[in-house]
Specification:
Elements lengths: L6 E2 L4 E2 L43 E3 L6 E3 L16 E2 L36 H12 L16 H17 L3 H18 L8 E3 L3 E3 L5 H13 L3 E6 L26 H20 L8 E5 L4 H10 L10 E5 L3 E2 L1 E3 L6 E3 L2 E2 L1 E2 L5 H8 L2 H7 L4 E6 L6 H14 L3 E6 L9 E6 L5 E6 L1 H9 L20 E9 H8 L9 E3 L10 E6 L1 E3 L5 H8 L5 E5 L2 H4 L7 H11 L6 H20 L3 H4 L5 E4 L2 E4 L3 E4 L7 H9 L2 E4 L4 E5 L3 E3 L1 E5 L1 E5 L4 E11 L4 E4 L6 H4 L3 E4 L4 E4 L6 E7 L2 E4 L1
Helix pairs in contact: 4-9, 8-11, 11-12, 15-17
Cofactor: Mn(2+); Mg(2+)
Enzyme class: transferase
Protein name: UTP-monosaccharide-1-phosphate uridylyltransferase
Length: 731
Amino acid sequence: MEAAPHIRGSRGPFKSAIIASSFLFFACGASIWPPRGFRGSSTHRANTCGFFPPLRLLKTSLSAGTIVPSSADCFFRRRGGATSPTSFSGKTQSPTTNPKPTLSASPSPTSASSIALKMNTVSKEEDDIFKTLIDLGQDHLFQDWPPAGEADDAKHNFFLQVQQLDKSYPGGIMAYIHKARDLLRAAVAQENPFEGMTPSVPDGQTLTYGSSEFAAAEEKGLREAAHATFVVVAGGLGERLGYGGIKLALPVESTTSTTYLEFYASYILALQARARHRTGDASLLLPLAIMTSDDTDSQTRELLERNNNFGMQDGQMTIIKQDKVPALQDSNARLASADTYTLDTKPHGHGDVHHLLLRSGLTAQWLAAGKKWVFFLQDTNALVVNSVLPALAVSATHGYDMNSICIPRKAGEASGAITKLTNRNGDSIIINVEYNQLDPLLRATTYPDGDTNDQSTGCSPFPGNANNIVMYLPNYHRVLQGEAQGVVEEFVNPKFKDSSRTAFTKPTRLECMMQDFPKLLAKEIGGKARVGFTSFEKWLSFSPAKNSLEAGAKAFAATGVPPATASSAEMDFYRAHLLKIRAVSGSRAAANLLDGPISSFADIPLETGPRIIVTPAVAVTSKELHDRVGKGRISVTGTSTLVLDGAGISVESLDLDGTFILRAGPRARVTVRDAKVRNAGWCLAPAGPDAVEEERIRGFRVIKDNGVVVDLGMDAEGEFLVTGNGEVVKQ
C-alpha cells in the first residue's frame, strides 16, 4: 500500500497513521452523530437513515409465471432482513421492526444493454434488477456473459443472489453502493474524520481484585444479575488461530476440554442459580443470544444440539444470523465478482448485532421480562466473566447507558483506547479510538508528546478497549427504535494498489463495529446519554485466543506483547485462578500456592503451572471463593493440576502435589478435609505429528496418565467427605 502524506492539524503534523489502513471513514447522515461542528466534509458520510431507493424487485408466481408485486419490496429495508432468529424451542421469531416507505428505483434511461440478449427467458423482476445495476454503473458484471441459452440457470441464480443481498441490507443495494461511493471518495481524498475534535481522558472507574471496593461491586452486581441478558458475538471462524472450526467450539483449556461456548453457558447458569436463590423465583432465566454468520451458523447449531444447549432451557438461547455484503473492487464502488455468475461477498462486521437484536424482537422481549442489562461478550476471552458482576454494579451506580470494559494499556500498544472527544461547540462523546489514530490525534491537539505513559501508573491514561460492553436495556431499546434502527456507522478500509488510489490490492467492503454505538446514543438521547468505562487488571479480565502460534511468536519476539494464542490464553486462564485464590487467602497463600516452571512451546514461553480451575458452579465472586476455597489450608505445587467443579464443594485442608480432579452434582455437599494427594500428575508434552487440531494450535498436549479423579456424578445427593489421597466417605 502506498505511503500516505502527512496531514496538518490545528497543532503540529497530523501524521499519516491516522489515514493508514485501519483509518475509519464514518458513514453518518445529517441526523446522526456527530453533531454540528464534528462534521468535516460531508462527502464521506453516507446517510444510514434516509430513504435510499432500493432495487425495485418483484416476486414471480412459480405456478403461473405471472408477475406479482411484492409489498415487502415497497418498504424501507433494514439490515439483516433476510434472517429471522430461531430459538432452540423450535420457534421462529418474527421481526418486529415497522418498515418505512421508500422511493422506488428510477427506470433505466436506456435499454442498450438489454438482458434479453443474454438469456432466453427473463422475468420482469430480473429485468428490473438488470436495469438498476446498469444505472448504478455495474455493467461490468455482464460483460463476460455468453449469449442466451448458455448457462441460463447460473444467470438466474445470479439475480436471486442480488435479490437476497438487496433485501438483507437497509435501503437495498442502491443504498449500499451510494454509501460506498461516498466513503471511498473520502478515502481517496484522505479526509480527516477527527477534524475539530479535542481528545481527553474520559470518566470511568478502576477496580482492583481483592480490594473492598471490588468485593462490594461484586455483591451489588450479583443483585443486578437477575435482570441481566447476554450476547455473544461469534461470526468468525478460527482461521487466524490456525483452527478450522468455529471459535466457540475451541477448548478454553486442555485439562477439561471445556469449549468457550460451554464455559459461557456454565457461567450464565451459575449466575442464574444464584439469582433464583436470591429472588425465590425458580423459573427465572438469564437469556443468551448468539450472533452467527454464514460461516459459523450451522456449526454453532450443531454444537448446541450435540450438547443439549449445555444445560440451558429451550428458548433461553437464541441464534441471530447476520448477512454478508457485496465486495467492492475499486474506488468507483464497482461490485466484485467471485466468478462470472456470483458476486463476491464479505462479512459486514460485528456492529450488525445491534440491528439484529431489534429485528429479532429480543430487546422488546427482554424488557417485557423485566430485564435491565445487556452484556456483550467476545467469543474467545474467557477471563471476561470476572468483570461481569462488578461492571454491572458500576453501570447501576453511575447510571451508565453504555459501559465499556477496559484494561490498562501501554502507550503505543496495538489496542483501541476509550477516549472523550469534544468538538468546537463543546459537545462531547466517549468512544473507542483505534491505536494508530490515537497518537497522531493527541499530537495534533492538546498532547504534543502524543500517547505517553503516566509516570505514576506506567500506563497510558487512555484505557484499553477490551470490546466487552454493558448496555442499559431501557435506553438501549429506545435508541434501537430510533430512526437508525440500530444501524451503526460504517467505514471502509481499502488497500490501494498504487498512488492513483483507484484500484485495490484486493476487494474491500463496508464494515461496522459494535463499539461505535455511542454515536447512536448521542443522536437519539443527546447530552443525556451517559457513557463510561470500568477498568480491570489485565490478568483478571483479558487474554483472548486470536493468533496462530507463528503470529503470536513473531509478535512476542518483536515487541514483547502477549502472543494472544490459544496456548497463552489457556495458561493465563489457569494463572487467573491461582492469583484469585492467593488474593482471597491472605498472607499465607503465596508460600502455599507456588508458581510453575516456564516452558517454551512453538517458540512461545509459557508459565505452565499450577493449572488450577475453579468452575463458576463453585464460585462467581471473591467472597464465595474465599468462603469455599480461600479460608481453608491449601497447598499446591507449581506443577500440579487442580479442578474443583460443583456448587457444594468446599476445601478445608488440601496438600496437593500432582493432579486432583473433584466433580459433584448440584445436590451434593462435598468437604475436602485432611487430603494429601500425591501422584505423578498430568504433564505437558510437545504436540507431535499425530496431534489433533486443538493440540496442534497450542503446540502441546496434556498427558493424562496419572492423577486422582473423583467424580460423584450429577445425581449424587447428601454429604460427602474427601480425605487422604482422594478417598470418599459418605456422611
